[in-house]
Amino acid sequence: MKRRDFIQRGSLASGLFMVPNFIKAFEGKVLGKTGFRKLVIVQLSGGNDGLNTIVPYTNDVYYNKRSKIAISPADVLRVNDTLGFHPGLLPMQRLYDKGYLSIINNVGYPNPSRSHFRSTDIWHTASDSDDYLTSGWVGRFIEQNAKKPFSAIEIDDSLSLMLKGKEMNGIATRNPKLLHNNMNTPYFNNLLKQQTDTHLSEHNLGYLYKTMIETKSSAKYIYETSKTATTKKEYPQNPFGKQLKTTASFINSGLETKVYYVAMGGFDTHANQNNAQARLLDVYAKAMEVFVNDLDDQGTLEDTLILTFSEFGRRVEQNAANGTDHGAANNVFVVGKNLKTPGFYNEPPNLTNLDTNKDLKYTVDFRSVYATILSKWLQVDHEGILAYKGEMLAFI
């Protein structure tokens, strides 16, 4: 195997940026402070249009500003007298009706960035809009509380900033068997043997080799544990469905991972939005329903919380290409079995009181969502991870 192929397929490209604590193996059970509770984070990358996701179907401003792309009142999946789901979200409406979904409106942050890259970094690091951090909030969580790289897994081939800490990273893999096999190739073992033959102490081991050792141990643990889980559920045969199926196998096998991260792209709908968003929301909702039902049937949904966010919303007014441009505040979905506030957590967006860019104003800081999850769900000190001292929410 070529070195570049090994690095890409083994997800070590992300590990080159960390200096982890040296450990030999991960076979032991890891309970830590967070017990068996798990968090699944889903990002709708590209800036999903929240107004056409949760539709204010009685709001005249909505229809005046979106004469060609607004969802018709006849097509809205109504849940109360003013709001309803996009017609492609019927599976999410079923979760809503079961009390498994909480919708938080107007989520954002001060002085919002409308750059995909910058706003994603802000959401991943939990920083202020003018503060540039090099570690993610999940990365800081695992190195301060969980202490093991496999405590956070991204279902992808490379690791995002969210899962990178200051001295320890999470693990990225789409296929635990492939990751495990890659960690046991002759090329990889020869690299480790070369380092072992130098007889250096743990303290003097190069960070690349420490990363390789940790990745190999993590890969063995992830593969051997996750292969014990099976599912009878038929997941959609698309990349997002496959990612959630892998996540479910990790959770249902009892893998001691605290946080999982999955991203689904394509939501940058500047032109011809209606068809594109309808297709994307259909993919999202169908896979999510199978995933939630799979966990529920296996008895693991009780201890799993699922957060869906997008890096920003879209402009209130449609553009000339029958799409929407980058906006600010957006809605966030929280799925769980024992939510304190199922349904709509707060008031819908105000379409007449916009910011100076004619975007929706935020009323809920996204870091208050993170702080609530860390403190109330994962039961750790959120201030040491977020440096955030704002309000806590009551959705869990």
Which secondary structure elements does this structure contain, and how are they paired or packed?
Elements: H1 3-9, H2 12-15, E1 38-44, E2 54-55, H3 60-65, E3 77-78, E4 84-85, H4 90-97, E5 101-108, H5 116-125, H6 137-146, E6 152-154, E7 171-172, H7 176-182, H8 186-197, H9 207-226, H10 239-252, E8 259-264, H11 273-298, E9 304-309, E10 330-335, E11 343-344, E12 364-365, H12 366-377, H13 383-386
Parallel strand pairs: 1-8, 1-9, 5-11, 5-12, 6-7, 6-8
Antiparallel strand pairs: 2-4, 3-4, 5-10, 9-10
Helix pairs in contact: 4-11, 7-9, 10-11
Describe the structure.
This is DUF1501 domain-containing protein. It comes from Maribacter chungangensis. The protein is α/β, with parallel strands linked by helices and 396 residues long. It has one domain (32-177, 231-386): Alkaline Phosphatase, subunit A. Helix content is 35%, strand content 12%. It is built from 13 helices and 12 strands. The protein has helices spanning 3-9, 12-15, 60-65, 90-97, 116-125, 137-146, 176-182, 186-197, 207-226, 239-252, 273-298, 366-377, 383-386, and strands at 38-44, 54-55, 77-78, 84-85, 101-108, 152-154, 171-172, 259-264, 304-309, 330-335, 343-344, 364-365. The strands form 2 sheets. Strands 1, 5, 6, 7, 8, 9, 10, 11 and 12 form a 9-stranded mixed beta sheet that branches. It has a 3-stranded antiparallel beta sheet with strand order 2-4-3. A hairpin with a 5-residue loop joins strand 3 (77-78) and strand 4 (84-85). Helix 10 (239-252) runs parallel beside helix 11 (273-298). The longest helix has 26 residues, at 273-298. The chain is globular, with a radius of gyration of 21 Å. The termini are far apart. Mean pLDDT is 87; it is low at 1-35.
